[in-house]
Amino acid sequence: MNAADDDDRPPPPAGDAARDDDDDDDDSVPLAIMAEAVLPLRDWICMNLHDGRRRDRRSYFQSCLTIAALLLDDIIACCQSSHDSNVQILISIQPQDIVMENFAVELLPADGDALPAVGRIRFKQCRLGGTTGEEEEEEELLHHVIFERLGWLLFELFTGGVVPKEGNEATEKEGEKEGKEIEEAEIEEAEIEGEQQDEQDERHRHRHQEEEEPPRKSTKKPERSRLQNDHPHPHNVLPLPLRRLLADLIHCRHLTDDTGRFSSMHDVRAEIHQMAKEPAFFLAEPFRNARAISEGLTFDDRDDRDGPATTTTTLYGRTDELHALLTAARLTEAGDIVVVCLGGDPGIGKSRLVERWKRQLLLQADERWLFFGCKFDRLAQTEPLSTVSLELDSFFETLVASRTNNENENGNGNGNGNHVDILRASIRRYLSPLGIVFMSGLFPSFKSLFPEVFQSIVRDDDDDDDESSSSSSSSSSSSSSSMSQSQCDSNGFRISSSSQSGPTTTTNERDERDNDNNDDNNDEDDGNDCLNADTFRNRLHYLFRRLLRAISVPEHRPLVFFMDDLQWADRASLLLLSSLVLESDHLDDDDDDDVDENEEEGEDDAPPPPLPRQDRRRHRRRYHQPLIVCSYRSNEPDFSRELKTCLDAFDAAPSVRITRLNLEGIDRSSTNAMISDALKLPLRLTRSLADAVHAKSAGNPLFAKMFLKLLVEEKKLNYSLEEHRWLWDTDIVRNTTIDESVAVVMTAKLSRLPTATLEALRVMACFGVKVDEDVLRLLSSTEEFATVFGSLERAMREGIIEKRNGDVYTFAHDTIQQAVYESLPQDLMAELHFRVGLQLVKGLSTCESSLSHSISFIAIDQINKGKDTDSASALSSQLKEVLTSLNLSAAELALDFADASSALSYVHNGLHFMGENPWEDAYKPCLRLHEAACLASYLNASPDGVSKYFGLIVEHARALEDKIKASCVLIQTAASNGDTNGAIDLGLDLLSQLGERFPRNISREDVLLALRSEKERKVCSDTKSQVLNSTVLTDVKRKWSLKLMDLIAPYAFVLRPNLLSLIAKRMVDISFHHGLVPESATGFFLHSYTLINIFGDIEEGYRWEQLALVILDKFDKQSIYPKVKFYLTIFAATWKVPFQSSIVELKLCHRECLLVGDIEFASFSSQRYIKYCIMCGKTLCDVEKDCAAITMEVSQLNQINKTLGHLCNHMMVLELIGDRSKDSFALLKGPISNSDDLLAYASDNGLFGVMQTTYLCRLMLGFFFEKYTDAASMAEKFRQCQKGVHSLNHILHAFFEGLVSFQLARRSENRSKWMALGEAAVETFRSWVTLSSWNFENKLALLEAELYFCRGKYIEAENNYKDAIKYSRMHRFVHEEGIAMELYSSFLEACGRVDEYSTLIAGAMDCYKKWGAYALLKKKAFRISDTF
Fold it and tell me: Is 628 left (phi over 0), alpha (psi -120 to 50) or beta?
């Protein structure tokens, strides 16, 4: 049913709708004993009138509307429709059938004391009649008679059983008289009600006086119930819409206007259903005063009118699109990554569609979903990402307010189960205190939401100052506590004052450096900021993703991120959008196992107990990727190349599901529904107006609304006090000329505003769709724009602008802002932009310090829009310097967010204000602008731009130091383009100019010779004291030398390991003899690598690593902590720490690298993590999932070319599992499609590490699948390209080469060769087992067992086999336990011990099953065992 009365009755039951003519006596059965009752319609009316449970007038009318709707449904079910010559012929029931006695009401069982609900209407004594096409005139007359009969029937229903004069035989004359009486009565009623309203107002004004006077005796006669009024006319009983409906039915044959006629029973049913659906809409009294009339035509959601509220929150004509959005939400909840692209013309209803979807989704999902949205602006150029972060920061502000209220009520903020506390704990869990401090630049409310984090920073700062004088005496404890939990956050990072450099502090710090007198130090720090721009962006994106996860996970709430008008988004926002969609944190799905959650305040350092495994899995499953909804104007000429690239990337991503919706104009029926709601008229009466409006607006909802308002303003759509409805002339509406542009329509309306108001709107339009009140107040404080603030009040009354969130002035729609902005020629608007910006710059000194940063950004944007005006060219040189400085600060801030396009724009604008000879007139600012342009070109993937600006810097640089920053960018550009050797050579050339010369071709002998004296340098307690007491390096050239060595060290690590050893030695020498810098820690770690890898001195290498930690503790440099932790894990820890511990550390290191934005070392960590997983025998199915996740991640981060060896590890895992459906090389672009291609590529480019990994994987597979000759060949090739002797690959190589050698020694003729290789492996592991029995004890036992087996010492061999199995099980190397059992079984088979052999084979199979190496179960020995 389409209507429901106030009883909230259930819907009628489904079933057979056929009429039953044999139930005439059903109504005689008492209701109290009936499961289902059927009452004659007249009896139902009496029951509702006289029952005490329903007395109010509206409830009765609503029930009658329900009856009428059911009645029409049943009548139409008896009718048939046909078409002859496009004229509808009604073959219907006879008029005499439409009487009260022929209808009965089927009731449903009642609940308690409530009235029985209506199920359906039964139409009895129906005689089907018919006419033919030859009787059209008689049919039309019959048609009218049926409508008249239906009208009188409904009249009797709504008036409570009142029978009209002479029953149902009303004559035409009486009908005309009835119509006149209705009209006269309506006018009389309006006058009476107006007088009553005036009397009521008078009593309201003198209510206090009336209370003091003695009560007067009323002379007014008591009113009878209107429902029991026996007046034959409906005007004293029914609301106006019902009176109009009945009058049009009763007098249908006399209506001359086709717009008022009913064409069929379907029209009557549609109108009844419309009234039943909106009873508050159609059962209300008409408007009574001027305010109601003026506000009667409205399309917004306000409910402060005297008349009934409109239903314009209804979404018109968007059913399919709404269903598509709901489907996207369901896919997101199912775990898919979904992006909805919503395109369409301005005003087509994109935002309203999303708003309606939001309400419906919240209603269906019990408000589980969280919605965040942002709207971009064509003109407003705020700080990067501020548009995106504003909505989230408002959400955090509500948390702050809730927490404050909770503290006031409870005395503390630790209420059990408190929503705010749960979210605070989750954010701390996922971001860590360091991440919270960093993100506070985007979200200032973090400082209030996490006061304990920022208080601890200040406290640590003070402690550092107090203890600085005693640093030398604490040298022994510094190294041991440098990575302790008490000084670290939950992710292992130390918290100090240096970690406060969040996204918005960068410019302020640079401004401070500008005023510093130490130019050398400023240059160095500045360069560091520029070099870390890419790192800054990566870190920000990762933390943003973690933040969304932190909000979503605790209370199982999926997220929607709505980005409106995306065609105007800046590049930083588009990069963030791409990161949210494409850069899924694959390994973070398991992070909950390792992250410490601090639930209670005051115990920040105490981690809770770990979750049970089943709870961890459930915890991981309840996070979903945010559902991204992108809205944009598909016909906008400003549709950016960056946005198209972004959307194309989403299309190309196999893991992303794209839903594209292109909104077009709504159809005529939807336009009619919208106008019907706005005019409070039935659809039948507004159809002609809707047709005309639809033709003018092409179905654009906003255009249609504006056109209607224009008709009202031009008096072509008027409200009649006499008829209580809106009136129009359809022909006049059709002939009204109107432009096709919504903006032109608005311009016409704006021209009628006062001049002061229009000028104020133009000033506001300079800032875009919205502007903060603080900006307008600052502007109004100037003499030139003193009247702006006050003049906007008129615009607010007109509905042109609105005030939202208390302090933001917003245009009602962005098309209005566009119309205002385009109301002036471009040159005059440019002049206005410049004047507005200039006044804001002059007012910066008077505004609060918290606002000066954001307002300066807004001001320089306004000035840049008018930089080519005459006023700009007439500026003084001093003011031009200020504008240059502001552009420079804006460019550097844009670079921090990797918004290269905006940065280049600010650079060009800054150079514009510098004059003709910028290098001579303002050398320092000009140099910094060119350095920013060089870095922006690098971020923009423009090598030509880098070369261009680098050439200009080299041409005009006054000193070598002035070239270094641009040179570093050039090195990074070469490495990013795949020319890693070229990048190393560029770095060596620059180091040579700085006085640090390195040979290009270095042999291993050269390294041994150069490091001979270094080998004698031992670390002792005096060395630690010397490091702690060392001064900070101040020599600028040497500082840059260390930075350059640190920059090229990762490239040398991969391609030139011998060069790396010399770089490490030189970094240590400079640090010892001239002073320390944070990069000194990297040099000490690399020197540790040299001692371990070249000389095999693991103990001494470990001591150098501890010394590097002392340097880190001294400088507290957060950005290099993850890199150092990576070095710490892969160098000495490989030989000193159980392999299983390294798995946890590497996974944590991977996350920490992403937290600081170091994606390169994050990729290295993930690759090494997989190697340790394989080495420890982790379940291969889990390893394969991690491999696929890491492959996807490094591909998304454009790091796959730096982690090619990982693809071979993935390939080996797939081979062991036996899964041939997946291809580890699928995501690799270019000529590499398999391991052979990879080997050829690595050989051509000197990638020895990739070659080693490939040979090693083939060696291991050869052993497992008993292809020992091929495995031995791979072992030999591994040795030929091996550059070091103490690496993780070497451990695996030595182990499996030893096993393969012993197998060949027993099978090959060249026994001595293989025995020599096997014995060498045994000796190697005998030396290693002294370093870590946990890692090497089982491997040594197995190699010795094989050795004794080959020598014929069977007792010793059997004992060692048993030891190998025991130690493998004890140390949790399940795969090596399987290897030991398999080899032991071969030993037993050779000895003829078949029974024990079968037991061992079964044990080996069980171990391989646990490991997940199902392909190994197909080996011959295992198949025979299964058969046996």
Answer: beta
Which amino acid is residue 726, in one-letter code?
A: W
- Residue range 526-536: average pLDDT? 54
Residue type, 1346: E
Provide the total of helices (H) and of strands (E) in the chain, helices listed first: 64, 15
CB-CB contact of 1035 with 1078 (8 Å): no
Distance, CA of 454 to CA of 432 (rounded, Å): 12
Backbone angles phi, psi at 869, to 5 degrees: -80, 165
The number of angstroms, rounded, from the C-alpha of 812 to the middle of its chain's C-alpha atoms is: 26
Report the C-alpha gap between 359 and 221 in whole angstroms: 50
Residue 693 CB contacts under 8 Å (≥ 6 apart), including other chains: 671, 675, 704, 707, 708, 733
- CA nearest to 282, candidates 9, 118, 64: 64
Residue 407, pLDDT > 70, answer no
pTM of the model: 0.67
Task: Give the DSSP H/E element, type plus range, for residue 1315.
Answer: helix 1311-1328
Q: Which two tokens stand for residue 989?
A: 């050339």
* Pair 994, 1069: CB distance under 8 Å: no
- Say which residues have a Cβ less than 8 Å from residue 177's Cβ, sequence separation at least 6: none
- Work out the end-to-end distance of the chain between its first and last CA atoms, rounded to an integer number of angstroms: 72
Q: What is the pLDDT of residue 1298?
A: 94
Q: Give tens-digit pLDDT for 1221-1238.
A: 888 777 766 677 788 888
Highest mean pLDDT: which of 152-161, 366-375, 842-851, 978-987?
Answer: 978-987
| CA–CA gap between residue 1093 and residue 1091 (Å, rounded) | 6
> Is there a contact between 486 and 606 (Cβ–Cβ < 8 Å)?
no
Q: How far is CA 694 from CA 167, 680, 733, 1016, in A?
A: 44, 18, 11, 91
**CA–CA separation, 852 and 1313 (whole Å):** 79
Sign of CA dihedral 1067, 1068, 1071, 1073: negative
Report which secondary-structure segment, H or E, holds 1048. Answer: helix 1036-1055
Burial annotation 192-223 (CB, 10 A radius, 16+ → b, else e): eeeeeeeeeeeeeeeeeeeeeeeeeeeeeeee
Q: Do residues 991 and 964 touch, judged by C-beta distance below 8 A?
A: no
* 839 token code pair: 């006044």
SS3 1362: helix
The closest alpha carbon to 1045, from 993, 988, 1003, belongs to 988
Q: Residues of 830-852 as b/e, b for ≥16 C-beta within 10 angstroms?
A: bbbbbbbbbbbbebbeebeeeeb
